[in-house]
Each structure stands twice: as structure tokens, then as C-alpha cells.
């Protein structure tokens, strides 16, 4: 696990601003945190090198890519052992339909957020790519009617 204890108020402010709008210019970032543009650029570079800033992302409307259905698939594993969990996790990460993989505690072991073109695509994904894996004991699928992602992470480090 990464240690981000060295991040100061300015670093956390830069992360917050970029998580809200990754297209914020370096000049705007510098003004917002009270640094020169060159010092700000160095800070952002260091945040990327430390992996505190993992990337920049575009918010694309799924329908523009032919995605008509999103779902959450709840997975209960057949057995809890590393020899099954790790390969299943890697298997799901390799599937282009899988947007997010959550390894969780509770009545299910993993949650998969998936995006597919239609109901038949979802059926094939569940039946052919997931249910047949030896790690799977039980699957449950819920359709996503609406999705809202917060644009900015809360800062609990301050």
C-alpha cells in the first residue's frame, strides 16, 4: 500500500481540483493553490510519479459507444482461497465489459460493474464468461437504471 503521508495541503488541493476537472490548465491550478506555473507543474509531475495521481479521464456518455445496459453482478465465490480468487479477479479485469471490480466483505465476495450493448450481450457475459469460471459459486445480476459518480473525492487527510 502506498504511503501518501508526505502530501501537504497544496498537493491535496491539486488532487481535488484535478479530480473535479482534469482539464484544468496548469495556469489555473497554479493560481488556485498560490504557486507559480512552473512550481505547480513540478508538483503535478511529482503527484503522478508517486501514483497519488493515477491518470486523467474523460467522462464519456456510454450510449456514444453503443452501451445500452449497465449492471452490477454480485459474485459469491465457491471457496475462499487465493488459488481461486486471484485468477478470477484477473479473469474479470481482462473482460472488456467489466468497468469496475470490487472485492468486498459481506454476503457477496465481489461486485462487478459491467457495460454491455444489449440484454443478449449481458446473458452471454454472465453465462459464458462468468458462471463457467471455477471460482464462482453464485451470481446475481441487477440492472443499473441510473448512475451518478461524484466528481471529487472527499479529503479526509487534512
Task: Describe what this molecule looks like in 3D.
The protein has a 4-stranded antiparallel β-sheet with strand order 2-3-1-4. The chain is built from 5 helices and 4 strands. The longest helix is centred in the N-terminal third of the chain and has 13 residues, at 37-49. The protein is elongated. A hairpin with a 6-residue loop joins strand 2 and strand 3. By secondary structure, it is an alpha+beta fold. Helix 2 packs across helix 3. The two termini are 19 Å apart.
Topology summary:
Elements: H1 9-20, H2 26-33, H3 37-49, E1 69-77, H4 82-94, E2 98-103, E3 110-116, H5 119-130, E4 136-144
Antiparallel strand pairs: 1-3, 1-4, 2-3
Helix pairs in contact: 2-3
Short description:
The chain is an alpha+beta fold. It has helices at 9-20, 26-33, 37-49, 82-94, 119-130, and strands at 69-77, 98-103, 110-116, 136-144. It has 5 helices and 4 strands.
Notable traits:
alpha+beta, 37% helix, 4 strands, 5 helices, 158 residues, four-stranded antiparallel beta sheet
Oligomer: single chain
Q: What is the strand tally? A: 4
Strand arrangement across the biggest beta sheet = 2-3-1-4
Largest sheet: 4 strands, antiparallel
Please tally the helical runs, counting DSSP H or I stretches of 4 or more residues.
5
Reading the helices and strands in chain order gives HHHEHEEHE
Residue-averaged pLDDT: 93
Q: Which geometry do the CA atoms define?
A: elongated
Percentage beta strand = 15-25%
User: Structural class from helices and strands?
Assistant: alpha+beta
State the helicity in percent bands: 25-40%
Q: Termini separation (Å)?
A: 19 Å
Q: Over all CA atoms, what is the radius of gyration?
A: 20 Å
Given as residue ranges, the uncertain stretches (5+ residues, pLDDT < 50) are none
Amino acid at each position: 500500500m502506498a504511503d501518501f503521508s508526505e502530501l501537504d495541503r497544496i498537493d491535496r488541493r491539486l488532487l481535488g481540483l484535478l479530480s473535479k476537472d482534469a482539464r484544468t490548465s496548469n495556469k489555473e491550478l497554479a493560481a488556485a493553490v498560490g504557486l507559480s506555473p512552473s512550481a505547480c507543474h513540478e508538483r503535478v509531475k511529482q503527484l503522478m510519479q508517486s501514483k497519488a495521481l493515477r491518470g486523467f479521464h474523460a467522462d464519456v456518455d456510454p450510449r456514444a459507444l453503443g452501451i445500452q445496459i449497465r449492471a452490477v453482478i454480485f459474485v459469491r465465490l465457491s471457496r475462499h482461497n487465493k488459488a481461486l480468487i486471484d485468477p478470477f479477479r484477473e479473469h474479470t479485469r481482462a473482460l472488456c465489459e467489466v468497468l469496475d471490480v470490487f472485492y468486498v466483505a459481506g454476503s457477496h465476495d465481489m461486485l462487478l460493474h459491467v457495460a454491455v450493448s444489449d440484454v443478449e450481450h449481458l446473458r452471454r457475459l454472465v453465462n459464458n464468461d462468468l458462471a463457467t469460471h471455477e471460482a464462482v459459486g453464485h451470481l446475481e445480476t441487477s440492472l443499473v437504471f441510473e448512475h451518478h459518480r461524484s466528481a471529487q473525492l472527499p479529503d479526509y487527510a487534512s
